[in-house]
Amino acid sequence: MAKKKLQHFAEVETFSNVFQHMQHGPELEDLPLKGKWNEEYFKNNNPIVLEVGCGKGEYTIGLAERFPEKNFIGADLKGARIWRGSKTAIENNMKNVAFLRVRIEQIEKMFAKGEISEIWITFPDPQPQEKREKKRLTSPRFIAKYKNILTPEGKINLKTDSEFFYNYTMEVIKQSNYKLLESTNNLYDHARTMAYSDELESLLNIKTYYEQKFTAKGFNICYAKFEIS
Q1: Is residue 104 part of a domain?
Q2: pLDDT digits 0-9 by tens, 128-187
Q3: Distance between CA atoms of 184 and 200, rounded to whole angstroms?
Q4: 142 three-state secondary structure
Q5: Average pLDDT of the chain, as a whole number
């Protein structure tokens, strides 16, 4: 397993759709593509959608397949995870996909103000210990970072199997007076009463490895969509 992981790390280094920005310290420089993703990488003016904590990239790839009129970037710390999504994108000649190996805490160094139109947070670590609240990807600390890279009308989507994390996020939305657009603590049951749309299709039909495991065990999937402008 360790040998395979090292092979994946080495291969990721050669992928043209992967950008790694793993410097340390307070003097971290901006990624050269900051503010220039569409101009220099995607070569179009389509909206950019970011998945934070993308893991193996299944959701980034799934969204990119369904919405070719948008550009998608998956960000994660683990290079061995990113390998799978980036390799799939290369094998399928997907020009609207990129991956970014970075600490999410440093996301403002990767994108300019208003460069991202939408953010997806899919099955993050819920960090249930109270002392780890700042590490939760919907904590006020992270929301402030997202606000600096989202367009004024930009949206955040959350999918999680953790009722704790969902309830925590709902409380953050309430206390900050963010605009809640959609929410349910049982997505697949709720879907029966929702109007069918391309967006609903993406919610129902794109399942990460972890989501498949959770639903197979009978866990409810929670979903929320909100604006922070």
Answers
A1: yes
A2: 999 999 999 999 999 999 999 999 999 999 999 999 999 999 999 999 999 999 899 998
A3: 13
A4: helix
A5: 90
> Interhelix angle for 79-91 vs 58-66, to 10°?
30
Task: Compute the distance between CA of residue 121 and CA of residue 224 in angstroms, rounded to an integer.
Answer: 10
Q: Which of the pair, 87 or 215, is modelled with greater confidence?
A: 87
Kindly tell me the burial class for residue 101, based on how many C-beta atoms sit within 10 Å of its own C-beta (0-12, 13-18, 19 or more).
buried
Report the number of distinct structural domains present in the chain.
Answer: 1
pLDDT at position 14: 82
Question: Partners of 76 in the beta sheet?
Answer: 101
Residue 25 located in a structural domain:
no
Domain that holds residue 120: 2-20+30-227
The pLDDT score that the predictor gives to residue 73 is 98
Within a domain: 86: yes
Say if residue 46 is exposed, middle or buried (CB neighbours under 10 Å; 0-12, 13-18, 19+). Answer: middle
Q: Supply the CATH number for residue 208's domain.
A: 3.40.50.150
Residue 55 belongs to a domain? yes
Catalytic residues: 125
- The tokens describing 128, both together, are 């249930």
pTM: 0.91
Which DSSP category does 43 fall into? -
Tell which residue, 208, 168, 205, has the closest CA to residue 185. Answer: 168
